[in-house]
Amino acid sequence: MEDNVSVGLLGVGVVGSGVISLIEKHQEKIAHQLGCHVHVKSALVRNPNKARDVDEEINGTALTTDPDDVLNDPEIDVIVEVMGGIEEARESILKAFAAKKHVVTANKDLVALHGAELHEAAAKNKCDFYYEASVAGGIPILRGITDGFASDHIEQLMGIVNGTTNYILTKMHNEGVSYEDALKEAQQLGFAEADPAADVEGLDAARKMAILGRLAFSTYIDLEDVEVTGIRDIELADLQYGDNLGFTMKLIGFAKFDGKQVEVNVQPALISKDHPLADVKNEYNAVYVYGEAVGEAMFYGAGAGSMPTASAVISDVVTVIKNMHRGVTGSQIVEPRFKKELKPKDQRFGQYYVRFHAKDEAGVFSRVSSLFNDLDISFKQILQNPSNSPDTAEIVVITHYSSLEKMHQALEELENLASVLDVNSFYKVEGDADA
Ligand SMILES: NC(=O)c1ccc[n+]([C@@H]2O[C@H](COP(=O)([O-])OP(=O)(O)OC[C@H]3O[C@@H](n4cnc5c(N)ncnc54)[C@H](OP(=O)(O)O)[C@@H]3O)[C@@H](O)[C@H]2O)c1
Fold first, then answer.
1. Residue range(s) defining the domain that contains residue 321
2. How crowded is residue 243: how many other Cβ atoms within 10 Å of its Cβ?
3. Residues 256 and 183 in one domain
4. Is ligand 1 within 6 A of the CB of residue 137?
5. Do residues 284 and 166 make contact, with C-beta atoms less than 8 angstroms apart?
6. Are 126 and 155 members of one domain?
7. Domain with 288 in it: what CATH number?
8. What digits encode the pLDDT tens for the residues 259-279?
9. Is there an atom of ligand 1 within 6 Å of 70 CB?
């Protein structure tokens, strides 16, 4: 057994610095598990002269601006890619596999887009490829679903996998502030980027759900298979109605598999206050898993940040080194078990919340009711309030289960009713309203 395993880092930013610090801090614990020491031999950066939080710990690590110094070093067995971006990271990882080095990455964008290609390259070169930190930061969810649910059939996943949007929605819900004000505060606190598009439009969550869906259901899910709706258009009124009716608004990644057909989407949804995900607040992440054998399980924790993410990265490094010692590297299952078949809209069922405005006159309600009745959609809850505009009523309904296709048809017909002025909001509802 080797006395020392050398790791090469690509990137010493938020996550890379955490990796250096944690390996240094917990060297003894890691050595106890592995029977050898782990050392970050060299690291790729853009600017080697930049002051870094880990300046003291970094002493034993050579900084370089040439990727080949890390990727072609024969003493390095494991490459940790934490530089971000797509193309350069992809090329570096392919080079690492070609040089028979194992790779650990935290890069969800890359894994969601090029996961299949990278897995194939790893297998071809008998290398390991792990990416625990790419979904939900410090929460060990990928190993949880692949190893923990190895003998179970996962029927459903629901994830709060984006801390920025969860922070914004928590703020709006708890303090009654607008989306814009909540976003501004998230940016001031460093929970949201200056350009928040990838987070608030749901793209970041979609990448994570594609990765989770692939591993949970053993089928390839491409990013374009994930339907995405972000949180930009959420109005306080919907959070408040939701609250009064027993629900909390969350940006949820849904993934379902019935053994044949799969559906994956990311959308704001009203979650019953009874549901365990309703209590996941601020920047925290959680993934709720429903397994045929296990039933309900939930993984909760910090979805980002230097130390939580570094902890997940190092757990992968430790796994790789254990595999090296046992001589079983490159034995990950690459080929999915199931051919992808997406579930059509007429077979996707859910409960839905609709808020609309209608003329406050006799007969409106019966016209609306018969429109839904004719499509076999029944109401679970109905609220009617006078609106701010004269002679206008604001109506909120929550439906029983209906197919998504029929709901879309109902919304189209509702918008065309002469007495309906606008259809404001439409959200999926999860759980019962009685909380
Ligand atoms: N931050 C989190 O909480 C978090 C959580 C989960 C996953 N991730 C993922 O982890 C990865 C890293 O994120 P991060 O927040 O640590 O990023 P970051 O703070 O921006 O750090 C990036 C690092 O990579 C180096 N780098 C970037 N491009 C380079 C290039 N072309 N050549 C040489 N060096 C380059 C930078 O060098 P300089 O230091 O010289 O600029 C920096 O050290 C991303 O894929 C991200 O999605 C992050």
1. 4-138+306-326
2. 15
3. yes
4. yes
5. yes
6. no
7. 3.30.360.10
8. 999 999 999 999 999 999 999
9. no
